[in-house]
Amino acid sequence: MLDPAKKHPMVMPDGTAVPQVVYLRAVIDHPRIEVGEFSYYHNFETLEDYAGYLAPYLFPLSLDRLIIGKFVQIAHGVRFITSSANHAMGGFSTYPFDNFTMNAETTGADIVAMFEKSGNRGDTVVGNDVWIGLGATIMPGVTIGDGAIIGSHAVVATDVAPYTVVAGNPARPVRKRFDDEVTAALLAIRWWEWPTAKIEKHINVITGGDIDALKHCSRESC
């Protein structure tokens, strides 16, 4: 049932694949992007360049990376604004003159120096089982913890704790999904690292609300 090699993992009862839903690992080949298995993206239209749409400022020579965990759910219109989009702000003008003076003598090292001048805020990291709602924007260097939920059209400029719901511009915590004890148990169990067959067997428990049942299933003998 779960096949990480599929390009279009959502299939209707009549066998028709939904072309607007893709597993990102199957459609992204970018040196600065890492995507875990079963993480999907839905766009209302099919795209030619998924990496270019999701992270339009991430280039092969960029200093930072976009790292997306397993079972991440990304809705239409989500964008990752990475550090390569930054302008240098230490001087009187933020205008990127270097961008408009490149020529045949411009080297890869020169381009890297441009990125260094504008600053690198580090990798953007999305944990596992994260849901990012429609039209959300994730700013450079942000880490989103496992199990977090990002509200529609949120602008996430700071780190998000695991299993926390955030919303707004700038995004602020709305609530914790679970109490600290349950959150700690979920982070220890890490069901997304189970073998696929085990995940399939226990889908109802994974999507349920009984932490004791999930703990039981996490045992080797389950």
From TrEMBL:
SUPFAM superfamilies xrefs:
Trimeric LpxA-like enzymes (SSF51161)
Molecular function (GO) terms for this protein are: acyltransferase activity
Which Pfam families does the entry link to?
A: Hexapep
Instruction: Classify the source by domain of life.
Output: Bacteria
Does the record bear Acyltransferase in its keywords?
yes
**E.C. numbers:** 2.3.1.-
* Alphabetized UniProt keyword annotations: Acyltransferase, Repeat, Transferase
| PROSITE patterns associated with the record | HEXAPEP_TRANSFERASES
Q: Which InterPro entries match?
A: Hexapep, Hexapep_transf_CS, Trans_hexapeptide_repeat, Trimer_LpxA-like_sf
For whether the record's keyword set contains Transcription regulation, the answer is no
The UniProt family comment states: Belongs to the transferase hexapeptide repeat family.
What's this protein's name? Answer: CatB-related O-acetyltransferase
Q: Which organism is it from?
A: Sulfurimonas diazotrophicus
